[in-house]
Design goal:
Jelly Rolls; 42% helix; 2 domains; alpha+beta; globular; Arc Repressor Mutant, subunit A; 24% strand; disordered C terminus; 11 helices; eight-stranded mixed beta sheet
């Protein structure tokens, strides 16, 4: 099996669960990670923030429930499109879930519809891929171990991902946004690709799910989350390092994309944190 499976265990007031993740090198263009979680959590609800990825979740036990966000309420076999707002899910008393975190290119390769149709919503996987959803769930239910579950899911992705690929100009534009953490001017992308403003916006939205500027905004936000996750930077430093004009700009973006201020994010992430916040 290519790539190492990393497993962690939690046994505290936060809950008791085992979590595994796998980054398969041979699917790196399509899948950011496969993940598997089983156990109980102390918090009944969890807020999920925009990260520029598309999430597939297969519940192998009791389903989760969507309590804030758009789409299907009962989360058993589902896909969540590229998020532009936070969503809140409610965990069952005990969970057992396989997940696939797809890059936009991976989701585009697996689905037969414009990606904008699933942006910001959670959809039953069966409604998107038909009987292939039940086939994936059956393969995962029948797996003898987490490793086998990952392997079965990876094979399912490989079998379906030959359908279509991103337009090379979209793929290049996506790469530039990612590697600059959203800082590249969209006008510069248009100049390099030779696409008009209208054409770039249309093809990017169809294949990625949002406009280029909106995707750059999400990537910058993801960068800020990663910096704040380290708990060592002041908010002002994190804002500048993430590419915001200043701390106030970052706070505005957090309110839009997370329904939280950076300080509130830190308080939730690190109860009792002493991270500096110059407000």
């Amino acid at each position: 099996m290519q790539g190492e499976i990393v497993t962690t265990r939690e046994d505290s007031e936060l809950g008791r669960w085992t979590a595994s993740r796998w980054h398969p090198p041979h699917l790196a263009r399509l899948v950011e990670r496969f993940w598997f979680s089983e156990g109980t959590t102390g918090a009944a609800r969890e807020r999920l923030l925009p990260n520029g990825m598309i999430e597939v979740a297969i519940s192998l036990g009791d389903p989760h429930r969507l309590v804030e966000g758009k789409g299907t309420e009962t989360l058993r076999f589902c896909l969540t499109g590229l998020q532009t707002r936070p969503m809140v899910i409610e965990h069952p008393a005990r969970h057992r879930v396989l997940g696939m975190r797809l890059h936009p290119a991976g989701a585009y390769a697996l689905l037969d519809l414009p990606m904008s149709e699933v942006t910001g919503i959670t959809v039953e996987l069966h409604d998107l891929v038909g009987a292939a959803a039940a086939e994936l769930a059956e393969r995962c239910h029948g797996a003898a171990s987490v490793e086998h579950c990952f392997r079965n899911a990876a094979n399912w992705v490989q079998e379906r991902a030959r359908r279509r690929t991103l337009d090379p100009r979209v793929a290049w534009s996506l790469g530039r946004i990612e590697e600059t953490f959203g800082a590249v001017p969209i006008a510069a992308i248009r100049d390099t690709t030779g696409l008009s403003k209208t054409r770039l916006a249309g093809v990017f939205r169809e294949q990625i799910g949002v406009l280029p500027k909106a995707y750059a905004r999400i990537v910058r936000f993801r960068r800020a989350l990663a910096l704040l996750d380290r708990e060592s930077s002041s908010l002002a430093t994190a804002a500048l390092d993430a590419g915001y004009y200043d701390q106030s700009h970052m706070t505005t973006e957090f309110r839009e994309l997370a329904d939280l201020t950076p300080r509130e994010f830190i308080a939730v992430r690190y109860p009792g944190s002493t991270t500096t916040a110059e407000y």
